[in-house]
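Submission checklist for the structure archive. All mandatory fields must be present; incomplete records are returned to the submitter.

[x] Identifier: Methyltransferase
[x] Organism: Zea mays
[x] Residue count: 539
[x] Sequence attached
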Amino acid sequence: MGLLSSLPPHRRGAFSGGGWQWSFLDVVWGVFLIAVVVFLALVFTPRRGDPILTTPSVARAGGTVPPCAASEVDLLPCEDPRRSSRLSREMNYYRERHCPTRGEALACLVPPPRGYRIPVPWPESLHKIWHDNMPYGKIAERKGHQGWMKHEGSYFIFPGGGTMFPDGAEQYIEKLSQYVPMKTGVIRTGLDMGCGVASFGGFLLKENIMTLSFAPRDSHKSQIQFALERGVPAFLLMLGTRRLPFPAQSFDFVHCSRCLIPFTAYNGSYFIEADRLLRHGGYLIISGPPVRWKNQEKEWDELQAMAGALCYKLITVDGNTAIWKKPAEASCLPNQNGFGLDLCSTDYDPDEAWYFKLNKCVSKISVAEETAIGSILKWPDRLSKPSARASVINNGANLFEVDSQKWVRRVSYYKKSLGVKLGSTNIRNVMDMNAFFGGFAAAIISDPVWVMNVVPGQKPLTLGVIYDRGLIGVYHDWCEPFSTYPRTYDLIHADAIDSLISGPISGTSRYTSHIPGVIVPFSNIFILFSFHLFNLVSV
């Protein structure tokens, strides 16, 4: 069922202050709100008696959004192989985001697959999911012997293995913990590049480590879809010609387990990007080729030379796993090397990463030492304190505190007055479409959920503050579809989203048809619209 608060701006603070002062206008708005809830219940709630979801349509300005064809069950508008197959293969450009033009976009609602069921609840979903929710057996057939997943009856089972850790992610994590402080609160955020079905990130959750796992839509097709169905933080993404959509100094460690990224190719562009994302004092972990790999001695030597050029310290080489530590200070200039490395000019903002071409220079971080491992607070203390990057906006530290307090009050209202089932097994994957400083995610940190915090890719770039808090997120422009599979989020939350999608570029039909598609059927859409946008969407 959908929930929507359409209170006008001057009323939004009424729930958080003192006693409510009822007036005639309050009664009018109360009746209106009830009508809205009934309307959305009729629109978004399918029949629970039928295990096969009926094909929906949603009211919008000028008519209804029709259902898509059954063949579009896993529609990814910006990662569509029918379009990408015509593009250049150079640096995997064709696997990056390439969104349809207005004339190409399908304005329809994606249907669920036949036999779709309500997902297995967390934490059971980490180990098994319904087969019919994504009936794709290619990974189980190709990778079952490596412990990725297997098909058993009505389920896909996830033993927790991976190509470089067929005996299980937990055993692999124990090995890494000998060299990386994974159990002390020093390490909180991680990036898993080429993650498979994200068992590594899933089992790190036990250590209070939030790992954002990513992989492209490739020959395995649905590995990120499996990860999200399991309730593991994951994102559809390709490291190709552009920066990844995260700010500099986001992650306490960067991990690659047989991700096959050629880190030293293209004058080291991919290593430089990993360096941009890795916090000073953080750890780079590479398992598999080319680390001590047969017939890849040259590539292994180049990888070590690249790390040395950026003053990384080699902590260990354990079998085919290498671990480096990035220097804690920002004073290391690229050493003499064969890669042509140099510092970027001051014109380059290391935090800009929305459709931003990869650099062949090393970014200089202005707040590197304040946000380095060892300087930044340990988890969970870092969650409640504004970092140095809050100064990206005027009076940022004070706004951080105000935002945090506001969302504690609002979340309490969501749960007690609106009945949003945060804290239950009904909700696991959550998206905040306009996250600002991540106050909403911080307010529900004790609930069994994870939150994808989305920040617009234009300034002010507050996503760095979110990562400094120990939360995760991405840059995005809501005039385009989000890079995720249909049916992957249990709850979508948005505050003042109209400021991000209004104007001639953002067609309302494109917005309304895409957002319901990424919601799990029988789930929640909870949106704080402005009255203006409510009129646009539901008339």
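[x] Structure attached
Curator remark: The two ends are 19 Å apart (CA to CA). The CA atoms of residues 56 and 67 lie 6 Å apart.
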